[in-house]
Amino acid sequence: MPAGNTVKEVIRVRDHFYILATSSLADSRTQVLKHGESFAVFDRHGDIEPIGQGTQGLYHEGTRFLSRLVLKLNGERPMLLSSSVKEDNALLAVDLTNSDILTDGNVVLPRGTLHLAREKFLWNAVCYERIIITSYSLSPVAVSLSVQLQSDFADVFEVRGIRRERRGNPLGVETKGGEVVVAYKGLDRALRRTRVRCSPPPARIQPGELHFNLHLQPRGREVFYLTAACEPESSSAPQVLAFETAFEQAGRALETARRRVPQVHTSNEQFNDWVNRAAADLHMLITDTPHGPYPYAGVPWFSTAFGRDGIITAFETLWIQPELARSVLTYLAATQATETNPAADAEPGKILHETRKGEMAALGEVPFGRYYGSVDATPLFVMLAGAYFERTGDRALIERIWPNIELALRWIDEHGDVDGDGFVEYARRSPKGLEHQGWKDSRDAIFHADGTLAEGPIALCEVQGYVYAARQWAAALAEALGRHEHASVLRIQTAQLRARFEKAFWCDAISSYALALDGRKRPCQVRTSNAGHTLFTGIASPERARLVARGLLEEDMFTGWGIRTVSSRAVRYNPMSYHNGSVWPHDNALIASGMARYGLSEPVLRVFTGLFDAAIFLELHRLPELFCGFTRRPGEGPTLYPVACSPQAWSAAAVFMLLGACLGISITASPPQVRFIHAFLPESVPDIQIRGLQVASGSVDLSISRFKENVSVNILRREGDVEIVSFN
Q1: For strand 673-677 and strand 221-232, is the pairing parallel, antiparallel, or unpaired?
Q2: Bridge partners of 460?
Q3: What is the pLDDT averaged over residues 154-179?
Q4: What's the chain's average pLDDT?
Q5: Does residue 265 share a domain with residue 248?
Q6: Which range of residues forms the domain containing residue 715?
Q7: Is residue 103 included in any domain, yes or no?
């Protein structure tokens, strides 16, 4: 076996869910669309080809329904002129032209004679495409157009690199008029179909290829429509509409969603681009579920509901879009584990890690049909419930999910702390499950100073902070519901945990909190970004919070673009790794929010500025899931990580938490109040307007301006009894 294949196989065995990479997103430059349970990854021509990472395709519910869709003109791919996804993510627009077309060695159609405009969007499990071909020749032109099609019905985990011993049965191709149907019967006995329709119908259909004949007069044009519908057996076949009708419906839905969210506008157009792209990405990733809209984690690998990702995204947007937190809480309460299931790492009260709908999940080849291998999602769920109630005063929802909150607290006390030492640990029970169950879940992410991998059960530092904050918020909720005795017990537990945490986790040698305690209660004395989350939750003492913040901005941790996950002095540091030296926007946003909590304005500014500068350099001003942790070099942008999801929900939402950290914004429903605590604005963003900010039953429009080291807040419009308070 060649050496390269040997290495690939070893990685697969060691970490079953490692995402294999033989190429980089940096060289494939794909375009992404998503709606509902469907997403598509195209190249810049608007095609789907099995090249690069091999991730291109039209996917629905975890299965690839189209693995090839290539447009050719006279048997050749047209030349690319431009390719862009609209700012609101509603449409992929591609401009193409013909290359020189030769007959017997003579140019019979010079390049640039024909213009091909491709427009593509997704709506309700259907990919719609309109192709407009215009001739600028002075004489009539006859050319052929072809579309190559293929459907492999690969599960997304196959695309990620997992090899299957067996697959289901392809059922062949049916053609009728201008329609082609490709079908597949999976090992899960589910039938999946891809239905492709063309208008006008093709002149002829060959296996895997549709052919059209074009006869264009000078300045003449032809319009072709193509739809690809994903038809899983689990749901009724989608309704295929006319291109214009579907696009109009999609536009109305987008406009309705946009009106529900406050608008942020500043005097810096580059910052506006970042905010607008983030808002559009969030809208695209939010998916309607039976339990309400939920922010799916990211495209292409994580286009599904993740508990941790959904909660953190809701936290990042809580001050500006609290409705998202409501639906996240509703969804996770409905999917909370109620019984013990070792195969799914499930225990009563545990909050969902992720859920999948593909063939491999249905068969149990991967454990993620409904999987609970997160140690942090459960306390984060309780935290979000408390923060949401303070923000909105939505007592009805809290009363409805209070049994879920109690069950989550019971999991923390019992299943989360099996050895009774007062800390919440994890150790997987499913042999197919995740080895590490914090947000850094790579197999080598938790280690000691000498590089030795930590053995479980493992107590992560940030998880103890989440538990601390969860009990604080739960105590406030219990008081609001008249459960005073329960609130008192929770407060006692909170104080005890903080004292125990400071004693066990603080490491003078690194002036920070240990990454974790291993199964023998030995601290992993490694400087990591995990310690920054202790500021977000408030478990860190004020003195040590300042030391942690200072350390996170030292050269070994801060790249100039953001805070690394691991110090560059650590044995396992690798700036190109997933969790051991890279920069994650959501991680930085949580840390900046924590810094603001302790009044550390200068550190907040540095994190904000680093990520803002990164967004300026990155395509579409879109922050990906992560990027490499190389030190910033003059005149160069951040280095892309080869298999990062982009867009990613908690990366998109990071800008709102960063802005909230700068403003020190805190919103309460009782009393209806917007507080600005130690607010500041960076020099790059001296003025900002927030319109339509909901506060209890009222709303306000605000104008905030930088004035030397302070800010002034002016009320442009106020409805209801909303108070604006500023603390310098």
Answers
A1: unpaired
A2: 516
A3: 91
A4: 93
A5: no
A6: 676-727
A7: yes
